Sequence to fold (124 residues):
Amino acid sequence: MIDSMFTVLKTDGEEQEKAMKEVSEKLELLEEGVKELVPDGSCPIDNESMGLLDLLFCSLFGSQKVPEEVHGMKMIHPEKTPLLYSRIAAINQLPLVIELTPPHDKMVSFLKVFRENALKSSST
Fold:
């Protein structure tokens, strides 16, 4: 999953589309796993009940709007992966996560530079 996400970020064109398809397939598989863990779709979360899986979700997808802004592709769709989408949205509203998340504009700037450098190095 992480390899495919990085490929989406540092490529363009057909290679990027292929990587995005891989990410989408893996996210749909992850959604199915979440359905098994939370069959009714509800699992309240707060700073005290955040588990290892929530930390993983936050690490990988918490700032999902940043790469969307940088490369223009939406990874987490509320229609395709509603449980994952709602869980990540709930995690992002936790006071602890808000406090520890770097400012959006700084992350966008960082990823833009990363992407530009990756695209330059792949074209040389």
